[in-house]
Write a structure and sequence with these properties.
The complex is a heterodimer. Chain A is an all-beta fold. Helices cover 0% and strands 56% of the residues of chain A. In chain A, strands 2, 4, 5, 9, 10 and 11 form a six-stranded mixed sheet that branches. In chain A, strands 1-3-8-7-6 form a five-stranded antiparallel sheet, with no helix packed on it. Chain B is mainly beta. Chain B is globular. The termini of chain B are far apart. The chains are: A mainly beta, B mainly beta. Chains A and B meet through strand 4, strand 5 and strand 10 of A and strand 4 and strand 5 of B.
């Protein structure tokens, strides 16, 4: 089945700096890669996703890049703000299905 | 407001007791999922349903059962709770048919003592 590894587990940056979180996946058939943001005590919410037919997608200060050959994808947050502090999860579908396998999460702290 | 509703928000349950966590969505999504979230382990799939009338096992199904009698409801039952089932449980749904976008419920925090 699909295996998703996420690094780092914790990340601390200064406000205004960039943050990068990386994930690797094992199933070469996977074709959809979402990122979720979970604030403390809240539900995970989709912030950006990418499909396998593109290499990069941007939405204001966040972007996701995909390298299908190497089977990894990354979340990039620029000009970080304190409200970006949260746990971020990557995911990939399992075995061509629509069941998502999640990484273990990255706790991002943006220091003012 | 359209979305997905979970109940209860939190519960303390004595070991050995049974409990049903409720999940209802009004988006007419075909697929529904139950995940548990534990510190350091992320979100792990318990059971899923691709469409009404069908269910399947996820990564950690032992001790849990589900049913999908209709499109909207997907209850999760713990027949005889154990302390290792202490966790935060999230229900999610997606339109399926190639659209993977998950919508999560607000979660149920369960403590088994």
């Amino acid at each position: 089945g699909e295996n998703v590894e996420q690094h780092p587990s914790t990340l601390s940056v200064q406000e205004g700096d960039s943050a990068v979180i990386k994930c690797t996946y094992s199933d070469s058939a996977s074709n959809y890669f979402p990122w979720y943001k979970q604030e403390l005590g809240k539900r995970p919410q989709l912030i950006i996703d990418i499909r396998s037919n593109v290499g990069e997608k941007k939405d204001q200060r966040i972007a996701v890049t995909l390298n299908k050959t190497a089977k990894h994808f990354s979340l990039h947050i620029t000009e970080t703000q304190p409200e970006d502090s949260a746990v971020y999860f990557c995911a990939a579908p399992e075995g061509g299905s629509e069941k998502l396998v999640f990484g273990k999460g990255t706790k991002l702290t943006v220091n003012p | 407001t359209a979305g997905i509703t979970q109940a209860p928000t939190s519960q303390i349950l004595a070991a050995g007791r049974s409990m049903t966590l409720r999940c209802t969505q009004d988006m007419r999504h075909n697929a529904m999922y139950w995940y548990r979230q534990d510190l350091g382990l992320g979100l792990r799939l318990i059971h899923y349903s691709n469409t009404a009338g069908t269910t399947g096992k996820g990564e950690v199904p032992d001790g849990y059962s589900v049913s999908r009698a209709n499109t909207d409801d997907f209850p999760l039952t713990l027949a005889s709770a154990v302390p290792s089932q202490t966790s935060v449980y999230f229900c999610a749904s997606s339109p399926s048919s190639g659209n993977y976008g998950y919508t999560f419920g607000s979660g149920t925090r369960l403590t088994v003592v």
